[in-house]
Amino acid sequence: MVSIVSLLVASFPVQSQIGGWDVGIDFPQEDDSNPFQVREDGSVSVDFFVYNDEILPITVEFEYEIPFEGEGDGPESENIAAGGNKTFTLIISGIDVWEYQADSKEDFTISVTLVSRASIPQPLPETKEASGELQIPRVYSLEVDISDPVGPMNSGSEMSLQVKVSNAGNVVDRVGSVEVSDNCPLLSTDNGLEILTTRDIQSGQTTSANILITASQSHPQRNCDVEVIISSNGAANSGSSEISEDETRITIEPPPANQEEPGETEAPEDTVEIVSSNLPFMGPVLTVSLILLTAIGSRKRD
């Protein structure tokens, strides 16, 4: 039976290809100008089909060319019945979307080779291709980092800490909002981080600002946690949400023992009072003379 079919295929090569066969791709919105959007996890699914309008069944083999260093997982070989149409799915994965600029596009190709008709190998395999585009998504990812203090701070003092914001995404972004909180009611922070909302941050770049922390004079000894939360402006504008947060711990200690309290005045030092007299100074000779005269006078009275 196989030999008879082989003779028929060899004798009627033109008739066996009436209608032909081909490969096609199901594009988004049925428009071949639309690219396939890669997801943030680096994957995308592509549906494609092979139709056979010939009068004999065919066997085809597949090969895939994937851009952005991705990997393709699809069928390797399939049989298509005469007048048949089969749909397949190509799973593309392994694309590191952070490594490529947002909205970058590159072509992928599906190659289909007809290797046999009615199970009879073709001496000259016929290959057809279908191509489409993959597009890298916009990835918004800001990361905030607050520096740790170099040591404790005293009540009634101030401390400045640096806050860094890095753009780990693949598109220009900026801080949409910034919030600073702590768990100590007698600890206050300034608004120095609001400047971050005015700066564009390129992909892979970092910007920073300082936050001033003040402990009141009456602040007790305690460990205080300071937290900084930021949001991505680009993510908010695209209808999503991207939040990053970081915190640090500050130790508050009483002021040093030799530190004067506010309003404390210095006590006056002890003084030595010197009393002076206007009487003339008597030398030692005059003093001895007076003593002798006094003694003589006493004897005469006796």
Q: Strand order, biggest sheet?
A: 2-9-8-4-6
Domain tally: 2
Radius of gyration: 47 Å
Residue share in β-strands: 35-45%
Name the CATH superfamily assignment of the largest domain. Immunoglobulins
- Given this structure, which CATH class of the largest domain is correct? Mainly Beta
Q: What name does CATH use for the topology of the largest domain?
A: Immunoglobulin-like
Element-by-element helix/strand order = HEEEEEEEEEEEEEEEEHEH
Helix content: 10-25%
Shape: rod-shaped
Low-confidence stretches: 1-12, 267-281
Describe the structure.
- With 302 residues, the chain is mainly beta.
- It is 11% helix and 43% strand.
- It is built from three helices and 17 strands.
- It is rod-shaped.
Write the layout of secondary structure elements.
Layout lengths: L1 H10 L9 E5 L10 E2 L6 E9 L5 E8 L5 E3 L3 E4 L4 E9 L11 E13 L2 E16 L6 E5 L6 E2 L3 E10 L7 E8 L4 E3 L16 E10 L6 E11 H5 L5 E11 L30 H18 L1
Parallel strand pairs: 2-9, 11-17
Antiparallel strand pairs: 1-3, 3-7, 4-6, 4-8, 5-7, 8-9, 10-12, 12-15, 13-16, 14-15, 16-17
